[in-house]
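Exam revision sheet. Question 4 asks you to relate a sequence to its structure. Input first:
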Amino acid sequence: MNPILARRSIRRFTPRPLEEEDLSALLAAALAAPSAHNQRPWHFVVSTRKDRLEEIPAFHPYSSMMRTAAAAVLVCGEPASKDDDFLPQDLAAATENLLVAASARGIGSCWLGVYPKESLIEGCRRWAHLPQTVIPFALVALGWPEETKAPHPEEPDPSRIHRETWER
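Answer key, structure tokens:
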């Protein structure tokens, strides 16, 4: 539970780069996510070049942290022939696996939504030179945190939990 509860959105990073071993581990976690009918529709565009990371705020208004991030991962999906309706859930599972794996390694991360906002989709598509068949879903900023945040509480909010039916 520690990596899950410790996972917080980090928006300030140190200049220290990520090791290739760290990036590989995070991508392995993302690739291990569940997907509908095990179709595994995901693709990941990884960028570590500072000049590329600094381009992102020009098209994504909530991405200023990319200027100090060590890496960005663009989580994308390529719809398959069956059950394309589950693409967002499949990609969200992969994104969450990546975030929790980062937390487990002490790496800071921040999930930036892309899908279904058309302007963000097109900005990411241009930035990553994606084919039209590939849908950008989320951008994840990664780096060694320059800020610390308290973990989420271990006790769940009882007002959010319903047993058997919605009624309380």
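Marking note for examiners. The beta strands are 42-47, 71-77, 108-113, 135-143.
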